[in-house]
Amino acid sequence: MFNRSNRLSKNKDFDKVFQAGRSSYQEILGAKLIPNNLDYNRFGVLVGLKVNKKATVRNKIKRRIKMAIRLDEPLLKKGYDCVIVVFPLILAKNYEEIKAALRAAFKKLNFYQN
To answer: Which H/E stretch holds residue 111?
Structure first.
């Protein structure tokens, strides 16, 4: 889990990222990014009912994505809001493939520190 301060929780925060954020889409997920004027990053993960109707499956996907973010967080630039959108093809992928897709999306957005 992320700390409460590192989570996007309000609809207006998600809307702001979707309206004005830069985006990068991979085969199994997409990432949208916008500066937030804070000293830390905030993340949100969206796994819709189209991915799977079972909440346990959707939560497992969220946990995997959050773990991949947590491992890379020291390498990321600070002061951004990021929303990860998941596509149904993620069900056929293992953790390593999910992590690689997330890193590719972050790299395309230039979200890593130099």
So the answer is: none
